[in-house]
Specification:
The structure holds two protein chains of two kinds.
Chain A (H helix, E strand, L loop, with lengths): L1 E8 L6 H12 L12 E6 L5 H16 L5 E8 L1
Antiparallel strand pairs in A: 1-2, 1-3
Chain B lengths: L1 E6 L6 H10 L3 E6 L10 E4 L19 H11 L3 E5 L1 H9 L5 E3 L7 E9 L14 E8 L3 E3 L2 H9 L3 E6 L18 E5 L5 E4 L15 H13 L1
Parallel strand pairs in B: 1-2, 1-3, 3-4, 4-11
Antiparallel strand pairs in B: 5-8, 6-7, 6-9, 9-10, 10-11
The chains are: A alpha+beta, B alpha/beta.
């Protein structure tokens, strides 16, 4: 079973990389961008076959390792 | 006095720390990250470097390595644990000290001497130290200290700020903040003040002919406090 997770920075956390990417996009002529926030994407392939259990396990992984909840949010976006 | 320095894959200030601790009288042991038990120690140091190549988040992989459970137990039972630079990043990832260390505000790796003001001397790290300001070295890409508003209130209420970036006179102002840290925070304690995390490297300032000598002041004072 494959589970996809995205990790994003919380709203009030400064994202200097996102800012620089935004500036670069501006310089390339993409002038209508309001903001860019950079995050992380994980694909986790697990032996678990029960979607609910697999999702719960990945949620635990997010809380314990994949995300730092002081600055980041996680979202499980796909279970296949 | 006995100390232990943990070496993680990618640590690169572990031997500098070993030299510094021995120079000021510690009987130091190097401990590998895959070991399970700590040797009997009065002080455990998590050194600087790039443990696990800074994968995922700086310090996050090291914070889950085998030896860390013993380090966490040691800290929770009142043992002195000091994390320098990457060691500080590992400490925040374990949750032993609050907050996180983000990428430097201006996205540059900073490698220079800075001044820090000691904000709290009511602990074994800085008790009896004559100086209020130390000149130490920083070298990091992720030293921008951040915490939530609630955490900051708790940190201030419990006097957990250890050192702040300042100028040679001790003025703590934004222009002396190298990396964007909240309140110019360069180092922080846990509530009980037995765990200290800080970005500056005292072990790089122990030889007046090579660098400066303010690290010597710190280590001499530290071992006297532990005796």
């Amino acid at each position: 079973m494959k589970i996809s997770v995205i990790i994003t920075l919380k709203k009030d956390v400064l994202d200097p990389q996102g800012k620089v990417i935004h500036q670069a996009l501006d310089g390339m002529g993409f002038n209508d961008v309001n903001e860019v926030r950079q995050g992380k994407y994980f694909e986790i392939d697990t032996k678990e076959t029960n979607p609910k259990k697999a999702k719960d396990k990945v949620e635990e992984m997010c809380k314990k390792l994949l995300a730092n909840l002081v600055i980041e949010n996680y979202k499980i976006i796909d279970v296949q | 006095m006995k100390s232990a320095v943990i070496t993680f894959p990618g640590s690169n200030c572990d031997r500098d720390m070993d030299v510094a601790l021995k120079k000021f009288g510690f009987n130091n042991k190097m401990v590998w990250h895959q070991d399970i038990e700590l040797p009997k120690s009065d002080l455990v140091v998590l050194p600087g470097g790039f443990s696990y190549g800074d994968y995922l988040r700086c310090g996050s992989m090291a914070s889950k390595s085998k030896i860390m459970q013993s380090v966490i137990n040691f800290a929770n039972s009142g043992g002195m644990v000091m994390g320098i630079c990457n060691g500080f990043q590992i400490l925040v990832e374990t949750g032993l000290v609050p907050g996180v260390l983000l990428r430097n505000k201006y996205l540059e790796f900073i490698c220079k001497n800075v001044f820090v003001k000691i904000s709290n001397k009511d602990n074994f790290y800085f008790k009896n130290i004559n100086n209020n300001i130390l000149e130490l070295h920083i070298a990091h890409n992720e030293g921008n200290y951040f915490c939530t508003k609630d955490q900051l209130k708790e940190i201030e209420d419990n006097a957990q700020i250890a050192i702040n970036y300042c100028d040679a006179e001790g003025k703590i102002e934004e222009i002396f903040n190298p990396n964007g840290s909240i309140k110019n925070i360069a180092g922080i304690f846990n509530k009980e003040k037995n765990v200290l995390g800080m970005m500056p490297h005292p072990e790089r300032m122990i030889d007046p002919s090579l660098s400066g000598d303010d690290g010597s002041i710190f280590f001499k004072n530290l071992i006297n406090n532990l005796k």
